[in-house]
Amino acid sequence: MTTPGDELLFLALGGSGEIGMNVNLYGCQGKWVMVDLGLTFSDPAYPGVELVLPDLSFIEERRDDLLGIVLTHGHEDHIGAIPYLAADLDVPLYATPFTAALIRGKLEEEGIVDDIELNVIDNEGCFSIGPFGFRYVPLAHSIPEGNALLIETPYGRVFHTGDWKIDEKPLLGVPSTPQQLTALGDEGVLALVCDSTNVFNPEPSGSEGDVHVGLLDVISKARHRVLVTTFASNAARLQTLGEVAKETGRTLCVAGRSLDRIIANAKASGYLKDFPKVVDFDQAMEMPRDKVMIIATGGQGEPRAALSRIAADTHPIKLDKDDLVVFSSKQIPGNEIAIGKIQNAFAARGVEMTTDRQAHVHVSGHPGRPELLAMYGWIRPRILVPVHGELRHMAEQAQLGLDSGIPEAVFQNNGNLVRLAPGKAEIIGHALTGRLVLDGDVILPADGATMNERRKISVHGQISVAVAIDDDGDLIGQPAIRMQGVPVEEDRDAFLVEAAEAAQDVVAEGLADTEKLREKIRLAVRRTATRWTGKKPVVDVLLIAQ
């Protein structure tokens, strides 16, 4: 199906079956709108890559029917792909002021701010795009202006939650009340498209106000220098840490460019008004150890972030024995090894550490099971569409919704084309989805030739063979062999001799076809390497004919 007919369609190109990289499409009466355009961070499956982007081939082929991109909030997994992919789509963006400020900064960094139309919508504002009407509905989250979208269509209303939680003591913004959400439900909601991240958590996610108490308790007991690491975008946590610094008589120092950007944009948008004045690195190091508190990025083990460099003692901020590092963030699955490496480096120097396992220093920005049930009761949709989670999260939420009385639930994945109306909600087709990687300054397929070659090299190593032959096909000199990452170590010289002999033996056969000769040399050298190491290195042959 290439064009939506008289129906309402939903299609996730990212964020369903995974946590991160959220991209959702709604189709109606021949047109599409996109909600969010996020990225995710790399893992060892993509060596040399830091950022992973969604493959938008489906909608790029239909860009004439795409009306715009509506952003729910400013987290990287919802806006991070904009500077890399939005220009090709060439449609307007829509966001509330703080989110728009973050997006504008990204576009300026890429030098494309004048090429993309960015529409700033007031908080709780409404606007229309083609057959779709949008209203921003504020919900609590860990970043200012976390929003749901109430989407009006000719076939019913969709409540698209974005990322959310229930917070009875929010520090930034004013989320919608249960009464306001109940009123939306009273008006009728066709479908609830809902965050699934914490569906297995039997408890509510907790309030940012309660974290204030936990952090104050931990930091007030610290005897020396304190460093707190948290997600840079968690402006509510930054507000908490600013207050705790004042209450404990500590001066703040901020380490991390992303923190600087969030603080500057938050202040410009009317948030963090009472955030304390910060000192630079040199000033922080000159102050008494019990009078300073550092906020640093990198709590997920990112190798180039401030925390990793501090742990490696390559940063101007220095930590000594009995200083304290507080991990005020949740350990994201997949980051355990990187985080453990940092924690081990601190432990070796006698630096103390506190995580959310030892003290109440973090709460999630996503809804636990009781919060999901509360939302179901307020909105009362006919259809539940779980998103933003791995398959196990979304399957569990679909069952939770059905068990709580929602008539229909659609268990979908990236690429499943779902018809929400008219009639019963069902998957009616499949669209191409996938991943791209930002490799240096180049965007490539995540499973294309470049990444496949790099994976092979990282596993098996690489050998280069240069062979010169004369007009009669006879060998000139000796084959030259260079290698990287092939595990021969102290046997290196002996291996190189045997590999060169294997290449010589092939040349001696007198093959006239140069391509067949090159391939036979490649296979002969690789067989030699396999016999010596059990590996199958990538072998490149340079054949020089004179």
Concise structural overview:
The termini are far apart.
Strand content: 25-35%
Q: Count all strands and give the number.
A: 28
Largest sheet: 8 strands, mixed
Radius of gyration over alpha carbons?
Answer: 28 Å
Give unreliable regions as ranges: none
Blueprint (SSEs and pairs):
Blueprint: E1 8-14, E2 23-28, E3 31-35, E4 40-41, E5 51-54, H1 57-60, E6 66-70, H2 76-79, H3 82-89, E7 93-95, H4 97-110, E8 118-120, E9 126-129, E10 132-138, E11 147-153, E12 156-160, H5 178-186, E13 191-195, H6 208-220, E14 226-229, H7 235-247, E15 251-255, H8 257-268, E16 278-279, H9 281-286, E17 292-296, H10 306-311, E18 324-327, H11 336-348, E19 352-354, H12 369-379, E20 383-387, H13 391-403, E21 408-409, E22 416-421, E23 426-430, E24 435-439, E25 442-445, H14 449-460, E26 462-469, E27 475-484, H15 492-508, H16 514-533, E28 538-545
Parallel strand pairs: 3-6, 6-7, 7-8, 12-13, 13-20, 14-17, 14-18, 15-16, 15-17, 18-19, 20-21, 26-28
Antiparallel strand pairs: 1-2, 1-22, 2-3, 4-5, 5-24, 9-10, 10-11, 11-12, 22-23, 24-25, 26-27
Describe the structure.
With 546 residues, the protein is of the alpha/beta class. The protein has an eight-stranded mixed β-sheet. The protein has a seven-stranded mixed β-sheet with strand order 9-10-11-12-13-20-21. Strands 16-15-17-14-18-19 form a six-stranded parallel β-sheet, with helices on both faces. α5 links the parallel β12 and β13. The chain is globular. The termini are far apart.
